[in-house]
Amino acid sequence: MISTLAFTPAVARATDHLYAKVKAVVPRFEWELHAPLIARIHELKREKRAVILGHNYQIPSIFHGISDITGDSLQLSRAAAKECGDALRIVFCGVHFMAETAKLLNPGKKVLIPDLAAGCSLSESMSAADVRELKRQYPGRPAVCYINTPAAVKAECDLTCTSGNAVEVVESLGASEVIFVPDEYLAKNVAAQTGVKLIGWHGRCIVHEEFSAAQLGAYRRQFPDLTVLAHPECSPEVVAAADYVGSTSGMIAHLDVVTTPRVLMVTECSMADNVQSAHPELEFVKTCSMCPHMKRITLEGVVRTLERDEHEVTIPPEVEGRARRAIERMLEIPLRTRPR
Ligand code: SF4
Predict the structure, then answer these.
(1) Measuring from atom 5 of ligand 1, which residue has the nearest CA?
(2) Ligand 1 within 6 A of 271 CB?
């Protein structure tokens, strides 16, 4: 089916309004390859009553072209819980732990991911047995895990958090010491904002760990009129060298108050492309920081998944209830008015 798709006048009519959102970053010849797939995906969504959730790190043609709801892990978790309405299927354009979260919050819906191998270095850094061992070493401490973990790890923890709410989650426990896993850098960056002692793990994001304070210094020398926004999965040195630190949704919100003509978003490279259309006044200084796991999701893969109803995400029954409770406890904590 995919090989027969062509850029016809009908496809152009059905997709030209979407091209307006990406034309600053997607050349026309590339769009003419993507548009037939995008048009087909919209047909399939209607036929299969599917809703597509797209993470901020997806390519612009997925983010703007086919996603019904976009955002970071926290926004997509909330959307999965509240906004998927009477859809029968959720197609998750993100990585596996995110699709698992959507399934945990929507047990009655079919959750599909275009590539079951779309993993995450943080999620793979820790097992349920590792959490149990930490809890044995530090008895009585509550355990918080980052949302970037498999369901089996979530099941061992009291609640989950994201980069957008980690401080609130840790402080909600009222404990002086908290097990906080698996991201070493996020733990250090959260610890710097709270009096709670965090017992961490050695997981790292392969994208964010690559940035250095020296690199940021070089960008600032080349572009003196630059605002630097960094993700808290970066090292504390990078965080200290940034003008603003926050989740991807926090970074997007912060663009509204930037006063310099140039911005560097110290995170996965598709972010800047996805926000360009909303901020034509800004020049985004770009890095080559691509997440290979996120980029396993393709338009071709979404078509195949919807046509064949394949790559369903399932949760082992022995962890399902406990993992869901850990996420629901996080969602019960109110968000600050402005994302960070
Ligand atoms: S960017 Fe980092 S944290 Fe996000 S999915 Fe990729 S490896 Fe995981």
Answers:
(1) 120
(2) no
Place of tokens 């044995």: 136
The answer, yes or no, to whether any atom of ligand 1 lies below 6 A from the CB of 205, is yes
| Structural domain for 134, as ranges | 123-202+316-331
Q: Could you tell which of 100, 121, 126 is best to mutate to test the pocket of ligand 1, judged by most ligand atoms within 8 Å of the CB?
A: 121
Same domain, 20 and 113: yes
Query: CA–CA separation, 180 vs 331, rounded Å?
Result: 17
173 lines ligand 1 (CB under 6 A): no
How many separate domains does the chain show? Answer: 3
182's tokens = 């698996």
Indicate whether 340 belongs to any domain: no
CA pair distance 52, 55, nearest whole angstrom: 10
User: Is 213 part of any domain?
Assistant: yes
> Do 180 and 187 meet the contact criterion of CB atoms below 8 Å apart?
yes
Query: What is the mean pLDDT of each successive set of 10 residues along the chain, which is 340 residues long?
Result: 79 95 94 97 96 96 97 82 84 96 92 97 97 98 97 97 92 96 98 96 97 97 97 97 94 96 96 94 92 98 97 97 96 65
- Residue 339 falls within a domain, yes or no? no
Q: Are residues 148 and 64 in the same domain?
A: no
Same domain, yes or no: 180 and 258? no
Q: Which residues pair with 160 in a beta bridge?
A: 145
- Tell me how many degrees the CA angle 95-205-235 measures, rounded to the nearest 5: 150
